[in-house]
């Protein structure tokens, strides 16, 4: 395990971004650090933030008992049928239009072209 290769291959762009971030970090802190140290710092901070998010998610919320008591089973409702609608394709733009069958003509809501239904 001691002789195991732990190097990671990254692209030049990724290396450049990490080097820029590390140099900003060094300017802020006032001391030089190695790339490995910088990656370790980033990993530690990421894990701290992640564990904070997990702890926040795991907190059980007290159930709203009033809402639970007021919950009812879904009841089926009778709905009267609406107007008959056919799916029409616009000849100009190809848009799909839900067209009421009692209307013989109208305008495309997408491109505005005048349309007239000719039949089935």
Characterize the structure shown.
- With 120 residues, the chain is α+β, with helices and mostly antiparallel strands.
- Among the domains are: 47 residues, no CATH class; 32 residues, no CATH class.
- 40% of the residues lie in helices and 13% in strands.
- The chain contains 3 helices and 4 strands, in the order αααββββ.
- The protein has a two-stranded antiparallel sheet with strand order 1-2. Strands 3-4 form a two-stranded antiparallel sheet.
- A hairpin with a 6-residue loop joins strand 1 and strand 2.
- The protein is elongated.
- The N and C termini lie far apart (76 Å).
Key structural traits:
single chain, 120 residues, alpha+beta, two-stranded antiparallel sheet, two-stranded antiparallel ribbon, 3 helices, elongated
């Amino acid at each position: 395990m001691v002789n195991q290769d732990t190097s990671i291959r990254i692209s030049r762009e990724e290396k450049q971004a990490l080097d820029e971030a590390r140099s900003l970090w060094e300017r802020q802190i006032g001391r030089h650090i190695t790339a490995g140290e910088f990656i370790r710092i980033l990993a530690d901070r990421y894990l701290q933030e992640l564990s904070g998010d997990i702890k926040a998610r795991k907190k059980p919320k007290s159930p709203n008992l009033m809402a639970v008591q007021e919950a009812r089973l879904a009841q089926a409702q009778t709905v009267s049928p609406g107007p008959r609608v056919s799916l029409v394709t616009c000849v100009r733009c190809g848009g799909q239009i839900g067209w009421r069958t009692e209307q013989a003509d109208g305008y495309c809501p997408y491109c505005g072209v005048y349309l007239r239904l000719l039949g089935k």
